[in-house]
Amino acid sequence: MSGTARLGDFLRTRRSQLRPEDVGVPTYGDRRRVPGLRREELARLAGVSSSYYTRLEQGHSPSASPEVLDALAGALRLDDAERQHLHALARPARQASRPRRPAPERVSEATAQLLDALANVPAIVLGRRSDVLAWNGLGHALFAGHLDFHAVQAPCRPNMARLVFLDPHTRELYADWPGKARAVVGNLRLMAGQHPDDAALHELVGQLSATSTEFASMWADHRVRTCTTAEHTMRHPLVGPLTVTQQTLSTGPGPSVVVATAAAGSPSHTTLTLLAQATAPNTPLRPVDRVCGS
Prior knowledge:
The protein contains 13 helices and 5 strands. By secondary structure, it is α+β, with helices and mostly antiparallel strands.
């Protein structure tokens, strides 16, 4: 899909999700043939001409200025992450590039040292396509204890998006699976907007869309979400239920370290301690360079 098509698809979907009453647009009791706002209504809210907005949504306009994009973001009630995503989608609309096979993602020595230092905290290193590049013993035990500990060394590393949608163990692990699934899709949407030329990312989305109707439905919703901090209640098969705060630590465009913590003295903190004791023989695993599909 071209950059202009991606931008138009996002605008069209988000427009259909806004009700006239949500943004103060009077309907005078008229019968509406389409869900959400009409094109001319959104254009009026954004202060642009209806014909220009129509061309933009249909992919017939080669560009949109940052000012116009900000006006559209305000009219669509986008949050900061969605606003940034809108601007990212507009960039390839101005200068499209062909999808390419990206270089393998690697974990820096500094990140590997951090993973070693976090031995008492569940931690995993994720690439932008949600490939698991490395994990420590407790991170493996919490998020994917049913997999072989050394699975990240295999040619086909585990992928958290695939696990969430296609792996029964991971689905059962999250008490609010739909919420976790939406967060995964929202983050992939964000990455797809930032890296429109990443062929491997497009392949992942295509595979998940073809094998999971739930993923396909959520992907079509065009929701964007940054996975920086989130609370998840988990049903761990080894130590039972616990609630953790999952935080994504990122210092730039490279892989991110994801850690899970629980409040000191809480039942969940005790449960994490039990999990650590049960998995004590495992040692931190350093990353390798080879990634499935690279």
